[in-house]
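U., I forgot to send this yesterday:
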Amino acid sequence: MHISGIHHVAIIASDYQLSKHFYTELLGLEIVAETYRHQRDSYKLDLRTLDGVQIELFSFPSPPPRVSRPEACGLRHLAFRVPSVADAARELRDKGIEVEAIRIDEFTGSPFTFFSDPDGLPLELYEQ
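Result:
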């Protein structure tokens, strides 16, 4: 097997329109496609980062809550690579998004910080 990268990450939103606004208008991800699946009463929004990684944003009627804090078992967080964590954090704060204090990765020396999507999913900004 030869894994060459990450193709996509799937996220289920409790409020589709709120999450769509967050990921497209506030974070600036590109919309690739939006599909309403009538049989599931569900939207699927395909988004893309500048380097081509996709995020699939789903809506489902009454999805069950999931423990999502960084120390819970399972996917810990989703990290976005940015040229400047300080600039990106400032931009998020200017848009009314709460961002944690910037820290330095003790292993790489790179700055990083965390914020959350509308459902509390931990998201990270990582400078590289």
